[in-house]
Amino acid sequence: MKFRFLLLLALFLAVIPAIPLQAQQGLLLLEKGSVKVIGPERTRLLRKPGAKMALHAKDRVQTGKDTTVKIKIKGKPEIIELSSRSFFRMGKITRQTSSISLLTGKARFKIQGKLKKKSKRKRFQIRTVTALVGVRGTDFVVGASNTQTSLLTISGTVSLAPVNMPDIEIEVPANQASTVQKNSTPTAPVEVAPKMRAQILRADSPKAFRIVKFGEAVKPEEVRKENEKKKKEEEEAQKKEEEKPPQDKEGEPKPGDEKGPGPEGKEGPGMPGEGEEDEEGMMMGPGSEGKPGDDEGPRGPGMPGEGQNNEGGMMMGPEGEEGGMMMGPEGEQGGMMMGPEGEQGGMMMGPEGVGPGADTFKPMGTEF
């Protein structure tokens, strides 16, 4: 009996350390300001510049005033730069695709590399309250509130569609911008002057997009016809590509071009060692998470009410869909709640972020 108990205990202890490693999806780096990370089983407040913390599935990130946070998706050349007063949630991360949510705030996304042309999947997808943003590899900025989502493409091409009409998808080329109002279609992309682009990049709020004179909202039927035409052209091009001999296909190595392990990387071409510093100076690996005592808060790594789903005023649905507290048009707390498809929720928040039964809640600005 005693032997059986010890065996079960040993198995239990062996499994526990592996769980966080399997769930880790990214690494957060606080460059300045303060940030709160709210997870299903823990809440952490970071205030020390340079503090790092591993991010797991469904973790929510809430940035404070005058804050810059950088998030590196694990195992991928994908970097997210969050500005002040932003609400961000880790979504589904797979080997091929990444899906996250930006509920409110401003963020820059640097997505390197591309999927093969024959793939119809978006390499990286962002969900906001009003829009779906998808890319295969590019650099762009998104500003989001509970009534509007604005997009500026820095390089490459980014797709933009309303949440309630995902088939009304337009493409926004480099140096152009578009916006989606609630219950509307995207505006026709417009060119943004270099000086205005620089202002948007430097700004700490989605209000920076106000300097852009956006075009008219596109007509749904025209977009559908254009997308159908484009789809047929892509299918024909793919069919011709598949009919080519293997050595003539784009992206296929030709005889004698194969490379073995060499100077491209310590473990062969394109295979940097795990835990090494990437091009942005961020470290990945199990030892990168912030440690207790790094000025996370008055009680160390935890916060009062740790583990509660409404910590920080944000609520999650049973399937992990976004919901809960949203931000007003000017970025203030308050207003109605939005469900995962934009419908109104049940709980209301007052102008000070206090609702029925929430007398202990404080706005983000007062906590930091």
**Biggest sheet overview:** 17 strands, mixed
Unreliable stretches: 17-22, 115-119, 258-368
Q: Number of DSSP strands?
A: 19
CATH class of the domain at 24-232: Mainly Beta
- The shape is globular
The CATH architecture of the domain at 24-232: Sandwich
| Count of discrete alpha- or pi-helical segments spanning 4 or more residues | 5
State which percent range the strand residues make up: 25-35%
User: How far apart are the termini?
Assistant: 53 Å
The average pLDDT is 74
Helix content: 10-25%
Structural class: alpha+beta
Order of helices and strands: HHEEEEEEEEEEEEEEEEEHHEEH
- CATH names the topology of the domain at 24-232 as Jelly Rolls
Radius of gyration: 23 Å
Task: Briefly summarize what is shown.
The protein has 368 residues and is of the alpha+beta class. It has five helices and 19 strands.
